[in-house]
């Protein structure tokens, strides 16, 4: 792995980031209020047929996501509301609701089947439409999107977001896909200076209406002539379907034009299957990694995809966090 001195240096930095966040919470010094939302369609998701892979178990992923958040509930409840957006009718939520009710988080399930009438291509559209709905309803809050197959590892993300918006309320924070993927050549724009968005993480202030602007951009790009779509497909290397990638392409376009001067790029912020594994990311970035991002699959054993990465994750992230939380509990 790394020698002990180097590892301890960055581990101490990671712990310091978390303790700084806890200190800010205890002194009521997180100044912004957050809405964190996820999109949930159940296991019959619109996207289930899009991938050449076993179908993800979205039910289990949703519970894992909020179970992870629930470990930090006493630190998060004062400034975060969680919203689960259900964009379809007839999704059985009984078992899901029972489990969510065992968590001590501010969670609200929003059933919004009217969003289905606006969807154009696939389930990714709901990310935009869900954010648009929330920013119209909560103009004074920071609207944050997370994919449901993400697991929070590092509470420092909320200090990071708070700091950005204290400096500039017109900012938008977006995951940087160029630093995310092992196979980035499959989606990378030919221009190295062109920002490629990973829309699993987006944060913006509601009143800026950036999700609405994103939807407008999506519609405009969807309506361009077929020859121009073919040009865009060539612009993105190996892009096999303009329609499939349109949700991300429209955010890419928006960030590289109208919002170019508003962007804060979230770099090296996650690891997991389909992304870079932890053992491929230099340890100097680890203190500011915030999420693990992996699917749980139906009819597939939940094997450990990368044993080395798993062991490093346990030592660097999970054990220190457990120790910090246990110390907090013992003092109360």
Question: How is the topology of this model organized?
Answer:
Elements: H1 4-26, E1 34-39, H2 58-70, H3 73-76, E2 80-86, H4 94-100, E3 107-111, H5 125-137, E4 142-146, E5 150-152, H6 156-167, E6 172-176, E7 197-205, H7 210-222, H8 226-235, H9 242-255, E8 263-266, E9 270-271, E10 291-293, H10 307-331
Parallel strand pairs: 1-2, 1-4, 2-3, 6-8, 9-10
Antiparallel strand pairs: 4-7, 5-10, 6-7
Helix pairs in contact: 1-10, 5-7, 7-9
What would you say this structure looks like, in words?
- It contains 10 helices and 10 strands.
- With 332 residues, the protein is an alpha/beta fold.
- The protein has a 7-stranded mixed sheet, with helices on both faces.
- Strand 2 (80-86), helix 4 and strand 3 form a beta-alpha-beta unit.
- The chain is globular and about 60 Å long.
- The mean pLDDT is 88.
Question: Can you give me a brief rundown of this structure?
Answer:
The protein has helices at 4-26, 58-70, 73-76, 94-100, 125-137, 156-167, 210-222, 226-235, 242-255, 307-331; strands at residues 34-39, 80-86, 107-111, 142-146, 150-152, 172-176, 197-205, 263-266, 270-271, 291-293. It is an alpha/beta fold.
Q: Which CATH architecture would you pick?
A: Alpha-Beta Complex
Fraction in helix: 40-55%
Q: How many structural domains can be distinguished in the coordinates? A: 1
Count of DSSP E strands? 10
CATH topology: Spore Coat Polysaccharide Biosynthesis Protein SpsA, Chain A
Biggest sheet: strands, sense, closure?
7 strands, mixed
Widest sheet, order of strands: 3-2-1-4-7-6-8
> Tell me, what's the shape?
globular
Low-pLDDT windows of residues: none
- Beta content comes to 5-15%
For this structure, the quaternary state is single chain
Structural class: alpha/beta
What's the gyration radius in Å? Answer: 20 Å
CATH class: Alpha Beta
Number of helices: 10
CATH homologous superfamily title:
Spore Coat Polysaccharide Biosynthesis Protein SpsA, Chain A
* Arithmetic mean pLDDT: 88
C-alpha termini separation: 37 Å
